[in-house]
What we know:
By secondary structure, the protein is of the alpha/beta class. It has twelve helices and twelve strands. Helix 6 packs parallel to helix 12.
Amino acid sequence: xxxxxxxxxxxxxxxxxxxxxxxxxxxxxxxxxxxxxxxxxxxxxxxxxxxxxxxxxxxxxxxxxxxxxxxxxxxxxxxxxxxxxxxxxxxxxxxxxxxxxxxxxxxxxxxxxxxxxxxxxxxxxxxxxxxxxxxxxxxxxxxxxxxxxxxxxxxxxxxxxxxxxxxxxxxxxxxxxxxxxxxxxxxxxxxxxxxxxxxxxxxxxxxxxxxxxxxxxxxxxxxxxxxxxxxxxxxxxxxxxxxxxxxxxxxxxxxxxxxxxxxxxxxxxxxxxxxxxxxxxxxxxxxxxxxxxxxxxxxxxxxxxxxxxxxxxxxxxxxx
Length: 320
């Protein structure tokens, strides 16, 4: 039993750890406790056999009392470092429990990239995991806009949401350069997406609002020529599918949540002290990113988009 009942980006950042566990326990059924809406993507990782629906508001720990099976042979806390997630798994009476909050648990690495943190956690228990083992196979679901530039202006919190009028300016620039652009938004983000569409003159058919189902969103990203977004789950999906991406970071450094080494992914960020990733207003570092540099980054990655995909390079680009 694995617990990581968080969002899309958290699931994808945890894929290397999930695959490490899958390889370490080849004879076990691997069950992941997570939000049911992400079931298809979890199964697509090849590391999970089944999903136990589990979610709680925010990033809280859900109750796992509805688990119908016998006590797990092994339970792994990939949710956090506190006693709450450990206790939720301990209540299932597993034969073995791996968690940061256990007496024998490894120390929490607070200033390490999320992928590296969980791979190091498993390594402390003798379970090897590769932080770069995160690619997903192309989905079988058809893309609603193959070859398009996908622009996603939303984010879970205001501090990670670049102003809509700036996204609109970039969309106008990309369209003027001859690129097909589609706008996407998650549940509850329709007003933002419509505002960006109106400011940029985007056609109604190229506005995919309302929150696409995860499998369709995955297909859209997999077949996109580029993904432009803030520090949100869609950026992780672009990395998982090897799709070029430009990601705008503010309160959190890309060294903690950004893309892995590859010239196909640009992380735009202005250095400074860490901010509140769950704040309500745009972070000051995020607001220091201008429309000109975002448009230039997108156009640079799109220059040879009609050619072959480039292979990962030696280092990721963090543009300051």
